[in-house]
UniProtKB/TrEMBL annotation:
The keyword Zinc-finger does not apply. This is Tetratricopeptide repeat protein. It comes from the Bacteria. Keywords: Repeat, TPR repeat. InterPro entries: CellSynth/LPSAsmb/PSIAsmb (IPR051012), TPR-like_helical_dom_sf (IPR011990), TPR_rpt (IPR019734). The keyword Cell division does not apply. TPR repeats lie at residues 140-173. PANTHER family: LIPOPOLYSACCHARIDE ASSEMBLY PROTEIN B (PTHR45586:SF1), TPR REPEAT-CONTAINING PROTEIN PA4667 (PTHR45586).
Amino acid sequence: MSEKHDDQTANAAQAEAKQAVSRLVKQIDANPNDFHLYYQLATVLTEMQDYEQAEELLMKAQGLFVKDEGAQSLLNYGLGNVYYQAASYDKAVSAFSKVKDEKLRLEAYQMMAQTAMQQNQYQKAFAFALTVHDAKPKDASVNALLGDILMAMGNFNQAADFYDQSLAADNQNGHVYFSRGLTAMVLEQDATPFMNAAKRLDPDFVKRSQQRVNDIATVVNKRHQDGDQQAK
């Protein structure tokens, strides 16, 4: 029953995406000088995992708006997202680094932090994320990202602090509750309230991530065993 429901949901989403593509193509035909429409169409194509067509569209649009710095910034940001989703991380960094628009630059820095995370370049990721945090200290997504980076670096105390700040701004994110629960396990705090919240808000994610819980539990148990042996 669940698989059938998932298939129906996927089919509905695909049909909706195709309608969005059709609508945006018509809008571009009617308004070829609106660069936002090219970005929106590329975003839909990226969500459909049609990365090649999204890249081609954005590069074509860049050629149409050569002298418009705002357009170039948005289109480069779009390209960065295409490359990020396609796991072409070096290309993603190159595209994000070309974003000059002041408002969009922070979004680009955050994506550069996420890209560096994917490349296991945690110090670089931390530097980019901290720059965004300085400008938006209460932003839930930035605090969660800093938590993820610090946890990957093994700094669980600081990671927990940033997850707490993220949850203070948005207490409906199952992923963040789950990550906070992992830090609680390592720090030997009570992880139950965090994990219960994660299961309530995003049960599928928690189910898929069970191996991470097992890995953390193994580390904590080994620490206890080592401590017991030293005590003897």
